Structures are given as C-alpha cells and as structure tokens.
UniProtKB/TrEMBL annotation:
Stretches that traverse the bilayer: 20-40, 52-70, 90-113, 125-147, 159-185, 197-217
Record flagged with keyword Membrane: yes
Keyword tags: Membrane, Transmembrane, Transmembrane helix
Record's protein name: Bifunctional diguanylate cyclase/phosphodiesterase
NCBIfam families: GGDEF
Start and end residues of each EAL domain: 439-683
Length: 683
C-alpha cells in the first residue's frame, strides 16, 4: 500500500529554497549530460545503437530502478536500487554518455510507472547524471576514459581508481539527495545525511563493488550478465518477504498509516532528538552566559484526534463505506500536516499526529486547526454528502510530559476535554486533569493489568421482591493488584475514565460479561447481566458495535445484556449521551438508570431517556427504617417509576426489615448483601 505519509510528490512552492535547489541541480544535470553527449563521435553513436549489450544493460538498469531491494526499516525512497551496479558498470565499460542516458531512461520509466511528479523525476535524473559525471572525472584523472566505441576493461591495478570513483559517486549522490531531504523536511543537512548513513555506505559498497566484476563478465560474454542478476533476484525476494512482514506489524492494514507500535518508535526518536537539542542549547547558553532558555528548538508535540459521530456513518452507510471514509480521513490528515510530521491510526476512529518539532502552543494550535479544517470539507460517498468534525487534544514535550506514554495520556485528557466542552481543540492543562503522580503510577499499573488479565468480574444478584426469584446479575469490576490485593472500582476507575484506557477496560468488561452470560444460558440459567457504563464510554462510538458483535458471536439476544448508566452522567452530558444511548437502544439493549435520586433530572428529561429500569440509590434505601424523610423519598420514587411504566430496583439492601419495607412500597426488585454479596464466577 502506498505510504500516505510520503509527501515528496508535492511540488515545492515557486521561489522557495527547495524550488531554487531543484532548478539549479536540474540545470547542472542537463549541462553535464549535454556536454558528455556533445563529445561523442559518429563511431560512438553507431556503437551505442548497434551494440546489444548496451540494451541488455539498459533493461537491467530499468528493472533495478523499478524494483529496489527494500529491507526492514527502509522504503522505496531509500531502498537499495540495483540499477547502481549496472549504471556504474556502464560508466566503467563505455563512459559517461551511455551510463547517464540509460540511468535517465530508467528514472523516467520508474517515475511514470510510480506516478511521481515531473519535478521529482527531473531532479532524480539530474542527480544521477551529476554523480556519474563526478565519478567519470575521477576516472579521467587516472587516465581511464571509455567510450561506446573504445570499451575499457579494468585490471587489478585499476581498483584504487575505481574505488575512489565509487566513493565520489556515493558522496555526490548522497549529498544531492540529502540536501533535498533537508530542505523538504526543514532539518539540517548534517541530520539528513546521517539518516541511515551506515546502511547506505554498506549497500553502496556492495553494489558499486560488483560493477567491475560485471564489466569483466560482460567483456567475456553478454550471457554472463543474467548470472550476476540471479543473486539480486534472490536477495530481492527474501527482502520483500521481510519488509512485508515488518510493514504489516508496524502499519494499519486499512489506511496504510503507521500504527501504535511505529508511533512509539518515531515519538521516542523525536524525543531523543529534542533532548539532544535541549542539551546543546543549554551548553550554548552556558558559553554565552545566558540564563533564559528558548524551548522552541526542542519542543515536540503529540496530537490525539477522534472523529465525532463516526458511528452514524457506519450505521447509515455500512462498514465498507465507513472504511472508505477512514481512508479518506487518513489522506486528508497526511496532506494537512507539515513535512516531517507523522500521522498514525491508533484504532477505530482515533488518530494520532506526531510533530517532531514545534515552536510553541500557538504553532501546535495552528496545525490542529488546519487538520480540523481539512476534515470539515464536505464528504460525498455513495451519493450522500455529509460533514466531518473532530476533537483534537494536544500535549507538548517537555512542557506536559517527559515520555511517550505520559504524552499520549495527557493528549487523551486534552481530547476528552475538547469533546466535552465542544471546543474542537484543547491543549493539556493541569487544571483540567485530576491525575496526581500517585494516580499516574496506578495508571501505568492499570495499563499492564489489562494485558496481564488482572481485571476480574464479580457478580451480585438482583432479586424480585415479589417472589424472591433471581431476575438479573450486576457485573462488578475488580482488580486483583499484585501488590495491593483486590481493588474495587473506586480505587482506579476515576483515573481511567479520563484516558484512552477506559475504552479498553469497558470492552474487556463487556466481553467477559457476555462470555459468562453465555455460559449461564447454556446451563439453562437465562439471566440478564448488567454492565456499568461510564461517561467516557458514552463518548465511545464503537461501544454499540462491540456489544452487537459480542452478542452475535455467542448467539445471545439483546435482552441478555443490560447497561447501567448513572443519572448524574446523563444529566451532565445530555448532548453526548443521548446519541450513544439512542444507538444502544436501537440495538435493543435494555438500559438502567443507576443511582437515581442523586442527580438533577427532570420528569420531562426522564421520560425522554430510553431506559426500562430505575435503580434507587443506596444512600436513600439504607436509611428508610430510621429516617421517615428517606422513606417518603423512596416511596415517591417507586410511585414515579411505576407511573412511568418502568421497573424499580433498590440498591444497598442489607437486612430483612429494609427488604420488607421496600416490598410494601411496591418496589419491584432489590440487590444488596441481604440477598448476596458480589461473587466471582469462573466461566
């Protein structure tokens, strides 16, 4: 799949340093090529046209340019082009004109085949011509000048001259390309040249070293040339398998974007570079005796971007259209960031953008605004036109976090704030983050707990007050911490609700609860299991999809699962909750309003909520025997729930007297220690 992060086909702005550089290199290349061809005699031209060996060389140069040997960690832009061996052999054997001509034909053919921009094709052709011309100059200094009509076959004594010519070829070629990369990515030339330098030196040593062997073989017989090509084919096939496996491991299969693994690698590289710049800046300030630091040269930024209402597209147009939309989003994002920035897909409709360098918060906001503007352009798919919106959270190094994990967590907090406040873009602010250092440490433990299966579900029964029969189970999350023992949700969920971990936790809970429910149903215990949903879950556009897939996979009806949503969440987040809760209700998932009486709901809003059960908070239920006021409140709630045609469930029932009082009030069901404590139930 084509790399969507590759923006080298984008033409440089006219008059920019990169544009000027391209023009100069192309003009020099044309001049060098023209000068070489002007020196050809008629005999040289006849030999150029009539010698089959030159055409065989040309075919292999084109093939080598079209099929570079790409090893893990490299791309088609910096892979080992085997055309180098054949073009350098042509230079040694027949001189610059034929080598430059064959290489130019290969570059043009490859450029057209790969859909490269004209400016890039012209630059690459000029780059090779200048590099070959520099190598030819070295050979000329040693008195080794070949022409198509006067071929040259090197001897052992010529190896020093060939080695020097190869070194000059490599240095010239690498410098020309490195300068273009430096101007394109806005980095120093030294940094651009150091990228994969050891790898490039080793590769060119091997490729250029084979050239004199090929010349000797060609001089014997043209039939030896294919024999030299066979090892290239074997290496190419093995490298292709390795690269394909690496690409699958580090890239998203749908969009072709880097995945979380590659994002971690690139972020760590960017942070290491920023730390190095910070150290060098500190040293310069020390030498200059300046105390004020300028952090603009060592900042890096990480964005977390989440699409709003993406689930509506999936539900309306189907998953294939949703997949095409994600591919379109990937394309728009990669063409809206700056050169050198990285766009990654973390999963679902969540993307990340890495800014290896960023001046300040204002510059980061500008990039985020550009991303949102690109996504807001109307989209037309399957005959329908609709708008996209996204919420973006920003965290900066070193301002907000010293490493990737904390940077991602704080970008996630900022994104959650942007979605909650409907501002579109938010930069991380400690004032809006309730995470303390101790809780952050727990967050790291919790992240590992998911992978180590330390999260467990305990089940507490809900019993009918009318006949004492079991009417349901509530799944309660527990964390079997290796050091702190069994932890209840209050000890860790508050921190998770503000992070991307909440999605993973909820999906784990839903999956585990459905597995246990299926086990009970197979044993003819058709009991409904309730799962608690947080405010973060109500913003998860993939929640309904996860539940639907889980039910289908286990052959369970929608009534087998119930979602409990607190009244406070719905009252504080009606704009977000209504869409998600509505989607769940459309699936037929029964909904329960938990902790009723602790929020600020109105009767009008309560009637609009797609719930079928109201759970009366334990803070009222536990005191009805001692407090007449609480008894009146509970009776009023029970009467209200009955009037609305809903089922009432009392929480926190711990003794027979309370259960009897609730039964007399007409309450439908209850749960609490009187009926059963939360218990584990191995599937």
């Amino acid at each position: 799949m084509k790399d969507p992060n590759n923006t080298r086909n984008t033409a440089p702005r006219r008059g920019s340093p990169l544009w000027i550089y391209f023009v100069v290199v192309i003009l020099l290349g044309v001049t060098a090529g023209g000068a070489a061809f002007s020196g050809l005699s008629s005999a040289d031209l006849d030999a150029l046209v009539s010698t089959p060996l030159f055409w065989i060389l040309g075919c292999f140069i084109v093939f080598g340019e079209l099929r570079p040997i790409i090893t893990p960690g490299s791309t088609e832009n910096n892979g080992a082009t085997t055309s180098t061996t054949f073009s350098f052999a042509a230079l040694l054997y027949a001189g610059l004109p034929i080598a430059a001509a064959l290489q130019a034909i290969a570059v043009i053919t490859c450029g057209i085949f790969r859909g490269r921009a004209p400016h890039r094709i012209a630059f690459n052709a000029a780059q090779y011509t200048l590099s070959l011309a520099a190598a030819q100059l070295v050979l000329a200094l040693f008195g080794n000048l070949a022409t198509p009509s006067d071929l040259w076959v090197p001897h052992g004594s010529d190896l020093p001259a060939i080695a020097l010519a190869g070194a000059v070829y490599f240095a010239c070629n690498d410098t020309l390309v490195g300068s273009a990369v430096a101007l394109h990515a806005r980095v120093s030339l030294v940094k651009a040249l150091r990228i994969d330098l050891a790898y490039q030196v080793l590769v060119h040593l091997a490729l250029l070293g084979l050239a004199p062997l090929m010349v000797v073989a060609m001089d014997r017989s043209a039939l030896f040339v294919p024999l030299i090509v066979l090892p290239f084919i074997a290496v190419y096939m093995n490298a292709s398998v390795s690269v394909r496996r690496e690409h699958q491991a580090l890239h998203d299969g749908l969009t072709g974007l880097p995945n979380r693994k590659l994002l971690i690698v690139r972020t760590e590289e960017a942070l290491a570079t920023a730390r190095g710049a910070e150290r060098r800046g500190a040293e310069r300030r020390r030498l200059a005796r300046r105390k004020t630091a300028d952090p603009s040269d060592h900042r890096a930024g990480l964005f977390l971007l989440d699409l709003d209402r993406f689930k509506e597209v999936n539900d309306t147009l189907g998953h294939p259209t949703g997949d095409r939309l994600l591919q379109l989003v990937a394309h728009r994002l990669t063409h809206s960031v700056r050169p050198g920035d990285l766009v990654a897909r973390l999963g679902g409709d969540e993307f990340a953008v890495l800014l290896p360098t960023v001046r300040d918060e204002a510059a980061a906001r500008e990039v985020a605004a550009r991303l949102r503007a690109a996504l807001s352009e109307p989209v037309r798919l399957d005959g329908m036109s609709f708008d996209l919106e996204a919420s973006v959270g920003i965290a900066l190094f070193p301002d907000h976090a010293p490493d990737f994990e904390l940077l991602l967590q704080r970008a996630d907090v900022a994104m959650y704030n942007a979605k909650e406040a409907r501002t579109g873009v938010e930069i991380y602010s400690p004032a809006k983050d309730r995470n303390s250092p101790a809780r952050l440490s727990m967050l790291g433990d919790l992240r590992r707990a998911i992978d180590r299966s330390e999260l467990e579900l305990f089940y507490q029964p809900k019993v009918s007050l009318r006949d004492g029969h079991l009417v349901g189970m509530e799944a309660l999350l527990r964390w079997r911490h290796p050091d702190q023992g069994l932890l209840e949700p209050d000890a860790f969920l508050s921190i998770a609700e503000q992070t991307y971990l909440m999605r993973s936790i909820t999906h784990h809970v839903v999956t585990a609860a459905l597995a246990q429910t299926a086990a009970w149903w197979r044993e003819d215990l058709a009991v409904q299991v309730a799962v608690n949903a947080s405010g973060r879950d109500l913003l998860d556009t993939g929640l309904a999809e996860t539940i639907e897939e889980g039910l289908l996979a286990r052959g369970l009806p929608a009534a087998a699962l119930q979602l409990e949503i607190t009244e406070r969440i719905l009252m504080n987040e009606p704009a977000y909750a209504s869409d998600t809760v509505g989607a769940l209700a459309d699936l037929g998932i029964p909904l329960s309003l938990d902790d009723f009486g602790t929020g600020y709901s109105s009767l009008v809003r309560l009637k609009r909520l797609p719930v079928e059960e109201i759970k009366i908070d334990a803070s009222f239920v536990g005191r009805i025997a001692e407090s007449p006021d609480d008894a009146v409140i509970v009776r009023s709630i029970v009467d209200l729930v009955r009037t609305l045609g809903l089922r009432s469930v009392a929480e926190g029932v711990e003794d027979p007297a309370t259960a009897e009082a609730l039964r007399d009030m007409g309450c439908d069901a209850a749960q609490g220690w009187h009926f059963g404590r939360p218990m584990d139930a191995p599937t």
